[in-house]
Amino acid sequence: MKEFMLLIRNTINSKTTFSAEQDLAFLKACEVYIEALNKGGHLKKAQPLIREGVMVSNPNGKWQEGVFSESNEVIVGYYHILANDLAEAIEIAKGNPEFAYTTTARVEVRPIKTKEAATQYVYPKGG
């Protein structure tokens, strides 16, 4: 199986209209999704991201720290998964509960490079 990263994108305020019950239902749906991926042998890791932080850049050799959410859209979490190919990874992404609870969600599906072809360097696996 190949490794893929699912980057979950949504507007920074996508959950502000949720009632307490809707928020709990969303969290429970995420737990069910994670457990299904785990049981199916597809999940390596999954974590939500807190919707605050800093963007670090170095234009022209001058360090800058700024607002990480220059646009209204932010990465709200990620799933590191295993899939046979990109098509299967896309199908897994389509099952993300973010789509059932908001209309602004997008999932970026990206293959993970595990080895450099030019140098044969194998990237370390996290523990």
Based on the model shown, name its key terms.
127 residues; alpha+beta; 6 strands; four-stranded antiparallel beta sheet
Explain briefly what this protein structure is.
The strands form 2 sheets. The protein has a 4-stranded antiparallel sheet with strand order 2-5-1-6, covered by helices on one side. It has helices at 20-39, 86-94, 98-101, and strands at 2-11, 43-48, 54-57, 64-67, 73-83, 106-111. With 127 residues, it is an alpha+beta fold.
Word description of this protein:
The chain is of the alpha+beta class and about 130 residues long. Helix content is about 25%, strand content about 30%. It has three helices and six strands; from the N terminus they run E-H-E-E-E-E-H-H-E. The protein has helices at about 20-40, 85-95, 100; strands at about 1-10, 45-50, 55, 65, 75-85, 105-110. It is flat, with a radius of gyration of 17 Å. The chain starts with a strand and ends in a 16-residue tail after the last strand.
Spatial sequence of strands, sheet with the most strands: 2-5-1-6
How far is it from the N-terminal to the C-terminal residue, by CA? 19 Å
Q: Average pLDDT, to the nearest integer?
A: 92
Strand proportion, as a percent range, falls in 25-35%
Radius of gyration: 17 Å
What is the helix/strand order? EHEEEEHHE
Work out the helicity level. Answer: 25-40%
| Biggest β-sheet description | 4 strands, antiparallel
* Total number of strands: 6
- Residue ranges: pLDDT <50 for 5 or more in a row? none
> What is the tally of helical segments?
3
Multimeric state: single chain
Secondary structure category: alpha+beta
Taken from the alpha-carbon principal axes, the silhouette is flat
